[in-house]
Amino acid sequence: HDDGSVKGIATGDMGVSASGEEKDSYMPGMELHAKYTLFSEGCRGHLGKELISHFKLDEGRDPQHYGIGIKELWDIPPEQHQQGLVVHTAGWPLAESGSTGGGFLYHLENNQVVLGLITDLSYSNPHLSPFEEFQRFKKSPVIKQYLEGGKRVSYGARALAKGGPQSLPEMTFPGGLLIGCDAGTMNGAKIKGSHTAMKSGIIAAEEVFKAVSSGSEGGDKLDSFNEAFKASWLYKELHQQRNFGPAMHKFGNIFGAAFAFTDINIFNGKLPFTLHDKTPDYAQLKPAAQCSPISYPKPDGVLTFDRLSSVFLSNTNHEEDQPCHLRLTDEDIPLKQNLPVYDEPAQRYCPAGVYEIVVDENSGKDKFQINSQNCVHCKTCDIKDPAQNITWVAPEGAGGPNYPNM
Predict the structure, then answer these.
(1) Helices and strands per DSSP (H, E), number in the chain
(2) ETF-QO/FixC ubiquinone-binding domain spans which residues (predicted)?
(3) CB contact set of 92 (below 8 Å; sequence gap of 6+)
(4) DSSP string across 109-174
(5) Alpha-carbon span 242 to 249, nearest angstrom
(6) Among 138, 207, 291, 326, who pairs with 225 as Cys (CB 3.0-4.6 Å)?
(7) Where are the domains of the chain?
(8) pLDDT tens across 262-321, in order?
């Protein structure tokens, strides 16, 4: 609106070529107007990111912190399956690389298991590859015993917001609300966010309903949401685990876990102080020359795999002739800044092989190549790029991964 409040959303234009020209299939986007617009795009939503910046919703808050979760679904032999078994891990193999995080393995029905590794994106060594760390994770005897003789059937990756309530932005702004993982309501200690996202949506729906029922024309800031949010079990749950993430970042896997266990399980999250982590994840990277290179073994094709065969299992598909949905603010930064200082970490933090340094056939010089067709929409590049030069936006139509049973 003219007064700066949110009026609604506009869908993207369809049928635009990679060069920006209108194709025969061109269809302009539509404007959808509403009294209140609720944004619930999931972790690091690109509209949410824009709203936070525009309305300064994170002013006075800790920066949001993230992890990247890489996940696979396996069919395993019946004799190795224990339906309902839950395995959680912490530390290994990430501790050897100077990072924090943990893994999981859940036994589902029909002789299937789902397993994954979450790498905190606060890591400092630019040589680290979350994808390769996940491959190492599967070599642990604890995990390997269930996978041997099995078959990998699905693969995926997604960033998750885990900063805790001290990293939550203001969730209200004129004309709308930011809810769920778009704001960062996940319980980082439990790695669970569906129930908290749903509760934030329920609270938002109730407060919007009250406002509309009372005759509101919309466009205002629903301060009643903040009051209802702080009075809910959702806020209490997030407050209880508020020190978990900062403790892991500050004290490492062993001492951080010990502190978090004491805080949450013994004191029930009622210690009279709150830990903070004021350094954004992207700013944690050290120059490559100051860090030890990490040698990862080649995939064996049985337990461990390469990126491209993994992306194939994610059923990722994008319309090829469309504008790249991974946008660079400055196209020179990858080669002039990130490559000499950080050995261009996008080559390693991306779990889908989207970013490569290749030699240009014509000039013989290095070229920063974006294979956007491979993108599984995990948003890690948007989060971890040290120059904050990459912005993920929604591609045309339903492009992206199509996960079965994930």
Answers:
(1) 12, 16
(2) 66-160
(3) 137, 140
(4) STTEEEEEEEEETT---TT--HHHHHHHHTTSHHHHHHHTT-EEEEEEEEEEE---GGGPPP-EET
(5) 13
(6) 207
(7) 37-63+168-281, 66-161
(8) 989 899 989 999 999 999 999 999 999 999 999 999 999 999 999 999 999 999 999 888
Q: Confirm if 128 and 295 have CB atoms less than 8 A apart.
A: no
Interatomic CA distance for residues 40 and 199, integer angstroms: 12
Which residue in the block uniquely carries the two structure tokens 């702004």?
173
Lookup: tokens for 145:
């015993």
pLDDT tens track for 105-135: 999 999 999 999 999 999 999 999 999 999 9
What are the beta bridge partners of residue 22?
16
List, in order, residues 6 or more apart from 22 with CB less than 8 Å away: 15, 16
Same fold, 37-63+168-281 and 66-161: no
Q: 151: which residues sit within 8 A by CB, 6+ positions away?
A: 74, 75
Which of 381, 280, 388, 284 has the alpha carbon at shortest distance from 337? Answer: 388
* φ/ψ (deg, to 5) at 31: -90, 130
- In eight-state DSSP terms, residue 382 is H
Q: Degrees (nearest 5) of the Cα angle 359, 363, 368? A: 40
Threshold 0.90, pTM exceeds: yes
Quick one: tokens of 67?
């992890």
> Can you give the C-alpha Rg of the chain in angstroms?
22
Mean pLDDT of the residues in the chain: 94
Q: Coil, helix or strand for 270?
A: coil
Cross-strand partners of 68: 119, 159
Structure token pair of residue 204: 């938002």
- CATH superfamily of this structure's domain 37-63+168-281: FAD/NAD(P)-binding domain (3.50.50.60)
The closest of 153, 196, 158 to 405, measured between CA atoms, is 153
User: Class of the 66-161 domain?
Assistant: alpha beta
